[in-house]
Structures are given as structure tokens and as C-alpha cells.
């Protein structure tokens, strides 16, 4: 059975910037295939697709969405034309409906950078079908845990459930930071609390992290970039294993976890 995975996708420049996180993502696809076999498809819950109720994209081939501006031309020259999987999209919608989470299907949307940016590194050939499911940032962690639990059967069907967000995401402090800037103490404190809670299986604490974790509201002024963690947690097994830990720009933790 495949694990479910949470990754921090970082800046849109991730594929073009030398960093420990880029090195990790570049090896993630091969590591998953060695340990668990090649996924037949990938379902991505991305922080960059927010909707009022769950939506699933269903296309024959995914367009690359450049949902950012002001970056070098080299970034806009990248593309990730992975095939879609309409049958999987229908399966996802059915699973959500059965769990009391009615969803819709979007027949036009492609892949935002929360999906294609890391997948370009992990599976550069873009030959595995990719489907996206949206997040509902106003509904919080418990809703996304339920959403992930509804998707858990897909792991037995060769589908990799991938939550793509950011372990910390206070972009108010981003400008002027060097990529190798020292990590801020508040970022480290929040990250250590979250890692310990995951390692100890403290699910209730994780669901109420905003009131219990140090500096939680500072690290996530809005929640959309942490919610994919709960999708991966819900879809996965009980054991959380940290796959990667690093910091970029002093304020973006790039941690990744497998739930097995």
C-alpha cells in the first residue's frame, strides 16, 4: 500500500533554485517507487486551489497554471503536461459524497504550482496521471482530516495521495531574505512542536494546533498552506515519518512527512 505524503512546495522558484528542499524533491519519486512501487496516479490536495466545497479536476491532459507573477522568464518556460484521469476524478467525487462531503467536478482546471512545481522535480517525465482536489480554507483542520479519511481507499488502488502546502507560511517576512538566511527561533519552535505532536500521535492537539502550538498564528496567518497536511494525515496510516526538514529564507520550513 502506498503511503500518503505531505510536502512543502515552497517558492515557485523551487525547481530553479539550489536548496536542500529541491534535492529532496528531486529524489522523492524514485524513493517512493523503490519502497512502494510506481503510483498509477497521483491525487494532489494543493493549498493553491481554494473553493467553497470540495472540487476535483477532470481533464484529459493538464494545463500548467502560472498562478504567480514577477518571476524570471525561465520559470514561465517550465511546463508539466501530465495526463489527467477522468475516471479517478469520478472515483474521488464518489468517495467524498459517500463520506457526506458532496463535491463538484471542474472540467477545465489544470495544475497550479502547488501541484506541478514539486511534481516536476519528483516525476520530471510528467507521465503519471495527476488529479487535483481543492481545499476549503474556511472549514479548518477537522474537515480536511475527514476529507483525507474519505480518500484513504485510493492508497489500495495504486493512487498516491499528496498534500502540498507549507510547514510554515508567514510571507509577510519573505521580502529581502536570502534563501540560506538563519532560521527564525519562532519558526523552529512551531516546527518542533508540530513534529513532536505528529511523532506522538497527538491528533487532538494537531487539530487544535492554532490554540496550542507556539507562534501558530504567526506561522500561518491564514490556514490554507497547512490544511493539506490534514488531508495526508487522514488518508494515511497511523505512523507519521518525517522525510525531510529544512528552512528556506529563514521563515519557510520545507518539512515533508509520510503517513504509513
Fold topology:
Layout: E1 4-8, H1 20-36, E2 41-50, E3 55-57, H2 73-76, H3 86-98, E4 104-106, H4 113-122, E5 130-135, H5 140-151, E6 159-165, H6 185-199, H7 203-207, H8 209-212, H9 216-219, H10 227-235, E7 240-244, E8 247-248, E9 252-253, E10 256-259
Helix pairs in contact: 1-4, 5-10
Briefly say what this structure is.
This protein has 260 residues and is an alpha/beta fold.
Structure characterization notes:
By secondary structure, this protein is an alpha/beta fold. It has a single domain, classed as Protocatechuate 4,5-dioxygenase, Chain B, CATH 3.40.830.10. It contains ten helices and ten strands. The strands form three sheets. A six-stranded mixed β-sheet has the order 5-2-6-1-10-7, with helices on both faces. α1 packs across α4 and α5 runs parallel beside α10. The longest helix has 17 residues. The protein is globular. The mean pLDDT is 96.
Amino acid at each position: 500500500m502506498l503511503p500518503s505524503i505531505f510536502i512543502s512546495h515552497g517558492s515557485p522558484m523551487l525547481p530553479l533554485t539550489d536548496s536542500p528542499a529541491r534535492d529532496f524533491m528531486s529524489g522523492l519519486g524514485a524513493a517512493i517507487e523503490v519502497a512502494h512501487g510506481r503510483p498509477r496516479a497521483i491525487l494532489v490536495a494543493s493549498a493553491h486551489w481554494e473553493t467553497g466545497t470540495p472540487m476535483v479536476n477532470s481533464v484529459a491532459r493538464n494545463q500548467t497554471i502560472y498562478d504567480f507573477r514577477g518571476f524570471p522568464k525561465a520559470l514561465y518556460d517550465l511546463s508539466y503536461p501530465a495526463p489527467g484521469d477522468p475516471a479517478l476524478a469520478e472515483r474521488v467525487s464518489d468517495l467524498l459524497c459517500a463520506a457526506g462531503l458532496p463535491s463538484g467536478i471542474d472540467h477545465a482546471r489544470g495544475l497550479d504550482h502547488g501541484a506541478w512545481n514539486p511534481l516536476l522535480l519528483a516525476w520530471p517525465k510528467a507521465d503519471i496521471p495527476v488529479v487535483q482536489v481543492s481545499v476549503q480554507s474556511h472549514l479548518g483542520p477537522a474537515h480536511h482530516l475527514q476529507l483525507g479519511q474519505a480518500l484513504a481507499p485510493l492508497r489500495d488502488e495504486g493512487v498516491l495521495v499528496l498534500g502540498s502546502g507549507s510547514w510554515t507560511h508567514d510571507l509577510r517576512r519573505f521580502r529581502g531574505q536570502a534563501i540560506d538566511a538563519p532560521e527564525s527561533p519562532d519558526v523552529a519552535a512551531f516546527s518542533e512542536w508540530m513534529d513532536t505532536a505528529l511523532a506522538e500521535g497527538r491528533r487532538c492537539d494537531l487539530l487544535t494546533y492554532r490554540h496550542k502550538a507556539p507562534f501558530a498564528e504567526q506561522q500561518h496567518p491564514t490556514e490554507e498552506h497547512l490544511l493539506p497536511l490534514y488531508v495526508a494525515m487522514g488518508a494515511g496510516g497511523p505512523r507519521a515519518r518525517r522525510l525531510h526538514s529544512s528552512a528556506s529564507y529563514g521563515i519557510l520550513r520545507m518539512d515533508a512527512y509520510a503517513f504509513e
